[in-house]
Amino acid sequence: MFSVVLAAVLVVGVIVAIVVGRERGSGQSLETVRGVVGSEKAPFFADPDVVAAFAAHGLRVTVDPAGSRQISEIDLAGYDFAFPSSFPLAERVQRKQGVTTAYAPFYSPMAIASFAPVMQLLSRASIAERMPDGHWVVDVEAYLAAARKNLRWDQIPGNTAYPARRNVLVTTTHPRDSNSAAMYASVVSYVANGNAIVRDIGGVPKVLDEVSALFLGQGYLENSTEGPFESYLANGLSYSPLVWVYEAQFLGRQFRRDGSIRDGMVLAYPSPTVLSKHTLVPLGDDGDRVGRLLTQDPELLRLAARHGFRTADANALANFAAGAGVDPPPPLVDVVDPPSYQVLETMLDAISRRYQQ
Length: 357
Known about the structure:
Blueprint: H1 2-26, E1 31-38, H2 42-46, H3 48-55, E2 59-66, H4 68-71, E3 81-83, H5 87-97, E4 103-115, H6 116-124, E5 128-130, E6 136-139, H7 140-148, H8 179-192, H9 204-216, H10 226-235, E7 243-246, H11 247-256, E8 265-271, E9 275-282, H12 285-296, H13 298-306, H14 316-324, H15 341-356
Parallel strand pairs: 1-2, 1-3, 6-8
Antiparallel strand pairs: 3-9, 4-7, 4-8, 4-9, 5-6
């Protein structure tokens, strides 16, 4: 036990020495800026190269991760910026804080982290299809049709990949807390509404039962997207065969080649999908500096792409994919808009109440 504690102390000491050395070597003291960010962006801000890029501008940026819907609800006193994972949630923060400025430095489409044998199985069930460029696409309309029938994995003919007595459902986060869950509700409500956006609150009851069932059938739900994704990486199929994620989470791990993306793990794209526009709301001058740097600094934009985020540079992701020896992400052709903030909140609140019953 002592050896474990001693090792941990040594690791912390090395990290502190590196940070202190960098600061002393730069000849400047760093101004600490504190933010709260969607959990999927925590690895980006923890990246030593990102830390160094901010330090080059005299900043030490520290962040607390949270579910993006939580960010729009919590007390933001003491924070210099809030960085949820969607523009509607950022707008809510702006309204509550009386702020008009916002920065959207990068974005990510929603995707499904899965496994090649599972995708092949869903292909035989006419729910998924492999495109000529090698990428998998999940037909959301076919997925909803299977969910209406309560299709179980062990009922798919010839299933030896995942013959579990569980319904074919995508694992998500809790609609009460997480932007990714809101994006999931946006996609499935669009398809359940006859491939049309739910335009007003009066249209919510039409899709509520079907959308709610997709959440309620999962059981326990985590409150931020990083949780299910880390469980997928660590436990594989024993956790879930289909996990709703941000594309950037999966690509960032592939690009960094840290070994967490193992053979057989694949990223599938729902058709349709939605874009999650990561939007920073400055809560003061220091937060504004962070927003401007993330939007304008070439090194920070390059590092954002290395973490799998799509930026204004359309070639950045392809370049990192080539360097990592993986297929470049596909162009986005079947993207829909989410409902308005008011409609989406009404839907999510209703789903959350049913989940608590």
